[in-house]
Amino acid sequence: MQLIQILIIGTNKPIMETIARLIDRDGIWQATIAFSIDDAFDVCLLKDFKIVLIGAGIDEDEELKLKAHLVKSKPNLPIVKHYGGGSGLLFAEIHQALNSNTKH
Amino acid sequence: MAQTVVHKANTRGVADHGWLKSYQSFSFAGYYNPERINFGALRVLNDDIVTGGKGFGEHPHDNMEIISIPLEGELQHKDSMGNTATIKAGEIQVMSAGTGIYHSEYNPDATKPAKFLQIWLFPNKRNVTPRYDQIEVNTANKQNEFVQILSPNKDDAGVWIYQDAWFNLANFDANTTKTYSFHKEGNGLYVFVLKGKVEVNGEALDTRDGFGIWDTNSVEIKAIADAEFLLMEVPMEF
């Protein structure tokens, strides 16, 4: 079975690692962490990501920069803000994003 | 015309982890219902019962306004900012998780469960410096009144958060009727009945029922029987 690839971006290392662990635990999703938008620019072209989650420490300008970067190559890739920093909202955010046809 | 939504108590999500029983008004953790994601900025309303001597081990949060209202028993709080505190019924705790915080919440009494509401609101500002606060709620001589316990203003009654939200607790005698006036245009009101029976906008609500109303400036609330309830005014767009 092919795993659904999820890119998570945030500057808080322990929280990003927790979120990645929660995503990977599901068995159908796989997380890749980027600790900055610059890292994300490089990483997002390496895999066929289905969702990008924006975590803590990434500001609006950086998020807009990422959207602008991806608008041509991956116009339908949902880029959503993650809230809560743990399992509470994570699964609903992923389900919602997978069911959306987000355009930047 | 006002729009409304009713969430009857028995339609909430339920998670039973043995040490924790959680009744969830909105999608949370393993409970996912696309029709129950949020009410405006109100994202989580968990009605939690923690077994004596058990609790939530250290875990992280970010970018969320987290409010805990103990209903029975106590919780012992510890966090990564160095705060150690105990909260009990009659108090309210708030955390702005911002860039990230770790905390634990334990029921220190091995003999009694701790019951509390865990409420999460989307913040109006991301990546703020984390903060913690708790206060005692003064409800003395305030029977049949709305008692403000939360607002966006540091110098107002109750705790404050990074959101244009106002919370009130109320303890009404049967047949008391009061009108709640909204603080801000565009906000909605979510009523959660803690005990008893109330009528809001003609809708009869029992214990632990939830009722949301928006596109209006005021709401009439009547206690059909003696009742305690929580009013959460939150932005519908944020």
Automatic annotation (TrEMBL), chain B:
Organism of this sequence: Pedobacter planticolens
Gene3D superfamilies the record matches: Jelly Rolls
Family matches, as InterPro entries: Pirin, Pirin_N_dom, Quercetinase_C, RmlC-like_jellyroll, RmlC_Cupin_sf
Binding site for Fe cation: H59, H61, H103, E105
Membership in a protein family: Belongs to the pirin family.
Pfam families: Pirin (PF02678), Pirin_C_2 (PF17954)
Gene Ontology MF, one: metal ion binding
Residues annotated as domain Pirin N-terminal: 12-121
Stretches assigned to the Quercetin 2,3-dioxygenase C-terminal cupin domain: 149-234
Coiled-coil annotated residue ranges, if any: none
Cofactor(s) needed for function: Fe cation
Record's keyword terms, sorted: Iron, Metal-binding
Protein name: Pirin family protein
Superkingdom of this protein's organism: Bacteria
Cofactor note: Binds 1 Fe cation per subunit.
